[in-house]
Amino acid sequence: METKTPRESLTVLTDLVLPGETNYLDNLFGGELLARMDRACSIAARRHSRRIVVTASVNHVAFSKSVPVGSVVTVEAKVSRAFTSSMEVFVDVWIEDRQSGERTKVNEGIYTFVAVDETGKPVPIPKIQPETELEKERYDGALRRKQLSLILGGRMKPKDATELKALFLD
Ligand SMILES: CC(C)(COP(=O)(O)OP(=O)(O)OC[C@H]1O[C@@H](n2cnc3c(N)ncnc32)[C@H](O)[C@@H]1OP(=O)(O)O)[C@@H](O)C(=O)NCCC(=O)NCCS
């Protein structure tokens, strides 16, 4: 199977925040943003694997800034690492100033997707080769985050998490 790059999975979704999508403070409702992030990550995972993909885990989300009604929101997702059937996908969320166009990062998340066949059984996916410094940094940390996610999901014993142990022994 050919090796691919994170760039090949890049997915960019840009949309407005409408009044029906906000909370009592007139900021974007968190669940609405999560749905947009999940959609972008799902497309990125599909572009990498060219298979049916399902969300296996939301590993991390940080709502660092609120997103006011009327904002133009851009969600950018890219596969950071591919394992056997699972992929880690990083997603960054930006808003832009109406007049200057200057972008501010408001949120980021890390999702895990699994490629499956028509019966829902996991299938192998292409490997990935990071190119930029940021892509390499995200690639390097991905196994550690996978192990943490598997522990939290009750799928791995902490004693088997070699990467996490190495982190604390460094
Ligand atoms: C995700 C799913 C396909 C995993 O299937 P499974 O039969 O448990 O398969 P496996 O245990 O072989 O896991 C498959 C891969 O997923 C990874 N995985 C599973 N759960 C994970 C988790 N919580 N965090 C990180 N990785 C996970 C495994 O490590 C494995 O990765 P690898 O093949 O790259 O090494 C299955 O649990 C599923 O279909 N879940 C529902 C998905 C869904 O409906 N999502 C939408 C939610 S509305």
**Strands across the major sheet, in which order?**
1-3-4-5-2
Structural class: alpha+beta
CATH superfamily: Hotdog Thioesterase
| Helix residue percentage | 25-40%
N-to-C SSE string, H for helix and E for strand: EHEEEEHH
Number of strands: 5
Count of all domains: 1
Identify low-pLDDT runs. none
**Cα end-to-end separation:** 35 Å
Cofactors and ligands: coenzyme A
Describe this structure in words.
By secondary structure, the protein is α+β, with helices and mostly antiparallel strands. It has helices spanning 30-49, 133-152, 162-169; strands at residues 11-16, 52-63, 72-82, 86-96, 103-116. The mean pLDDT is 95. 28% of the residues lie in helices and 32% in strands. The chain has a single domain (6-130), classed as Roll (Thiol Ester Dehydrase, Chain A). It has three helices and five strands; from the N terminus they run E-H-E-E-E-E-H-H. A five-stranded antiparallel β-sheet has the order 1-3-4-5-2. Bound molecules: coenzyme A (COA). Residues 54-57, 83-86, 112, 114, 116, 120, 122, 146, 149-150, 153, 155 line the site of coenzyme A.
